[in-house]
Amino acid sequence: MPKSLRSPRQRRLLKRLIAARKNNGFTQSQIAEMLRRPQSFVAKYEGGERRLDVIEFLDVTEALKIDPCELLAQMRRSRDL
């Protein structure tokens, strides 16, 4: 299995996370503050420089006020076969 850091699916996930942040009117700094992380943490995962582990993903979706299960279901429905 190839690494996913720069895969098309990873890019689609990041687009959805970024869109959720913007749609909710949050800045990267505000999300970072909610996560008790530096703003660079948000910038790095949004920019594709780092992946989120499962726990980080859950924390991010909670901060973004989105359902992680629904986000994953959307990813699965839009996946390239």
List its salient traits:
mainly alpha, 81 residues, 434 Repressor (Amino-terminal Domain)
Report a brief summary of the structure.
The chain is mainly α and 81 residues long. The protein is built from five helices and no strands.
How are the elements arranged and paired?
Blueprint: H1 8-23, H2 28-35, H3 39-46, H4 54-64, H5 68-77
Helix pairs in contact: 2-3
Sum up the overall morphology in one term.
Answer: globular
CATH architecture: Orthogonal Bundle
CATH class: Mainly Alpha
CATH topology: 434 Repressor (Amino-terminal Domain)
Order of helices and strands: HHHHH
Instruction: Determine the fraction of residues in helical runs and give it as a percent range.
Output: 55-70%
Structural class: mainly alpha
| Parts with pLDDT < 50 across at least 5 consecutive residues | none
Kindly report the name of the CATH homologous superfamily.
lambda repressor-like DNA-binding domains
Rg is: 12 Å
Largest sheet: none
Average pLDDT for all residues: 91
In the residues, how many domains can be counted? Answer: 1
State which percent range the strand residues make up: under 5%
By DSSP (H or I, 4+ residues per run), the number of helices equals 5
Number of strands: 0
